[in-house]
Amino acid sequence: MSEKTIFKKIIDGEIPAEVVHEDEHCLAFHDVAPQAPVHVLVIPKKEIRSWAHLTDEDGPLYGHMCLVIQRLAAELGLDGGYRVVVNCGADAAQSVDHFHFHLLGGRKFDWPPG
Ligand code: DGP
Predict the structure, then answer these.
(1) Helix %, strand %, coil % for the chain, to 5?
(2) What is the spatial distance between Cα 11 and Cα 82, in angstroms, rounded to a whole number?
(3) Is the minimum distance from the CB of 55 to ligand 1 under 6 angstroms?
(4) How confident is the model at residue 1 (pLDDT cuts 50, 70, 90)?
(5) Residue 100 C-alpha to ligand 1 middle, in angstroms?
C-alpha cells in the first residue's frame, strides 16, 4: 500500500491543521505556506490523486466543493474577489498528490499567473 499523503494524515487527524470547514465529503484548512492574506485549501475526504484522476462519479463531490468554496469566500470576507486554483501534475507544481483547490484572496492577483 502506498504511503499516506500529508493531506490524508490531516483528514485522519494524525497531524493538525487550522480547519475552517468540515463536512462528510470535504475538509478546508489554512495553507501552511500562505501566498495571500487568505489561502485556504479545500480537499475531498475521498483519496483522489489529482484533477486528472477525477471521474464521472466525482461530479457531485466536485460540485459540492465548488459551493463550499463560494460560501467560504463570503465567510472569509473576500468581497473584492478571489482566485481558485488547481495545480495538476508536475508542470503545474502540484506538490501534494491529493486533489485540492486553493482559495486565495485578500490581495490583487496578476494575470497571466507565473
Ligand atoms: P500544491 O503545490 O498545489 O500541491 O499545493 C500544496 C499546498 O499544500 C502548498 O500550498 C502547501 C500546502 N501544505 C503542504 N503541507 C501542508 C501541511 O502539512 N499543512 C498545511 N496546512 N498545508 C500544507
Answers:
(1) 30, 20, 50
(2) 25
(3) no
(4) low
(5) 9
Ordered domains of the chain (ranges, CATH): 6-105 (3.30.428.10)
Dump pLDDT digits (tens) for 54-75.
999 999 999 999 999 999 999 9
- Which residues are the active-site residues? 100
Q: pTM to 2 decimals?
A: 0.97
Q: Is 76 in the pocket of ligand 1 (CB under 6 A)?
A: no
Distance from the alpha carbon of residue 96 to the mean position of ligand 1, in angstroms: 7
Residue 17 CA: distances (Å) to CA of 6, 31, 66, 90: 11, 9, 21, 25
Question: What is the mean pLDDT of the segment spanning 3-15?
Answer: 97
Whether 88 contacts 58, CB under 8 Å: no
Question: From the CB of 97, is ligand 1 less than 6 Å away?
Answer: no
Cell numbers linked to 34: 500562505
CB 27 within 8 A of CB 21: yes
